[in-house]
Amino acid sequence: MNDWKARMQKTVRHLAEQLAGIRPGTLSVGFVETFRVTTHGQMAPLGRVASVVSQGDRIVVTPFDSSTVPAVVKALTDAKLNAYALNPRTVCVSVPPVSGEQRAEMVKHVKKLGEEAKVAVRAVRQDARKEIAARGRGSERAVQEATDAAVAEIERLVKGKQTELAS
């Protein structure tokens, strides 16, 4: 019955892992891995559909399925990154020094990741409430307290990363 607490904590941990990959000094592999790519009709993080490595002044993305190269290029170009197909199997992202506009984009992306995490936590809360109503026992107050704690932790993580990116 209390698996909802673990699901909320897992969501917060996942967000923390995503934010850890975002570095303010330069465009990082972890940041690029968080962008979502539409493949086979579904959205997936780039890190799950491709290998992402840093090579000097560029980041090389090698999709596991070479047919997804156009989708990867489109996703990265839509994110205002200088991405191009290096060959039919790899995508290259050039890494210039991060400008103020790019920092603002990174902050916007961090906010978006935080909102997605909050939505996931609230979905878990809704599932827990339905389960409590169906069983006729359990504490909705405990569910709400856990939700509030998870949302507060998400906001703390997002604010911390925003201040790191702004400096």
Describe this structure in words.
- There is one protein chain.
- 60% of the residues lie in helices and 18% in strands.
- It has two domains: 3-17 and 99-166, Ribosome-recycling factor (Topoisomerase I, Chain A, domain 4, Orthogonal Bundle); 26-94, Gyrase A, domain 2 (2-Layer Sandwich), CATH 3.30.1360.40.
- The model has no long low-confidence stretch (mean pLDDT 85).
- The protein has helices at residues 3-20, 29-33, 46-49, 69-78, 100-135, 140-166, and strands at residues 36-39, 42-45, 50-55, 58-63, 83-87, 90-94.
- Helix 1 packs antiparallel against helix 5 (100-135), helix 1 (3-20) packs parallel to helix 6 (140-166) and helix 5 (100-135) runs antiparallel to helix 6 (140-166).
- It is of the alpha+beta class.
- The protein is built from six helices and six strands.
- The chain is globular and about 60 Å long.
- Strands 3-4-6-5 form a four-stranded antiparallel beta sheet. Strands 1-2 form a two-stranded antiparallel sheet.
Beta-strand content? 15-25%
- SSE succession: HHEEHEEHEEHH
Number of helices: 6
Mean model confidence by pLDDT: 85
Q: For this structure, what is the CATH class of the largest domain?
A: Mainly Alpha
**Count of folded domains:** 2
Oligomer: single chain
Q: Which strand order do you get reading across the main beta sheet?
A: 3-4-6-5
Which descriptor suits the 3D outline?
A: globular
The biggest sheet, with number of strands, parallel, antiparallel or mixed sense and barrel status, is: 4 strands, antiparallel
Distance between the termini: 43 Å
Q: Mind telling me which CATH architecture of the largest domain this is?
A: Orthogonal Bundle
- pLDDT < 50 runs, ≥5 residues: none
